[in-house]
Amino acid sequence: ELPFNPNGYLVKRKAMVYECGDQCRCPPSCRNRVSQKGVKNQLEVFKTNGKGWGVRSWDPIPAGSFICEYTGEVLS
């Protein structure tokens, strides 16, 4: 069972979500290729008060939407 609905919203929570890749026989239109379709929302990188940098959007984003891949070094 795929974790995404036909609109690309995550509808089934899982610890890890795996998407179809180059080795998969499904077509590029497969609904299990959500993050591969890129960013759909306007995002802003901003400086927080005492927590470093963050990302936000001034647009409403439906629950379950793919936002973006957000990576970085964890500092403590």
Automatic annotation (TrEMBL):
<dbReference type="InterPro" id="IPR046341">
    <property type="entry name" value="SET_dom_sf"/>
</dbReference>
<dbReference type="Pfam" id="PF05033">
    <property type="entry name" value="Pre-SET"/>
</dbReference>
<protein>
    <recommendedName>
        <fullName>SET domain-containing protein</fullName>
    </recommendedName>
</protein>
<keyword id="KW-0158">Chromosome</keyword>
<dbReference type="InterPro" id="IPR007728">
    <property type="entry name" value="Pre-SET_dom"/>
</dbReference>
<dbReference type="InterPro" id="IPR001214">
    <property type="entry name" value="SET_dom"/>
</dbReference>
<dbReference type="GO" id="GO:0003690">
    <property type="term" value="F:double-stranded DNA binding"/>
</dbReference>
<dbReference type="InterPro" id="IPR051357">
    <property type="entry name" value="H3K9_HMTase_SUVAR3-9"/>
</dbReference>
<dbReference type="GO" id="GO:0008270">
    <property type="term" value="F:zinc ion binding"/>
</dbReference>
<feature type="domain" description="SET">
    <location>
        <begin position="41"/>
        <end position="76"/>
    </location>
</feature>
<dbReference type="GO" id="GO:0005634">
    <property type="term" value="C:nucleus"/>
</dbReference>
<dbReference type="GO" id="GO:0042054">
    <property type="term" value="F:histone methyltransferase activity"/>
</dbReference>
<dbReference type="GO" id="GO:0005694">
    <property type="term" value="C:chromosome"/>
</dbReference>
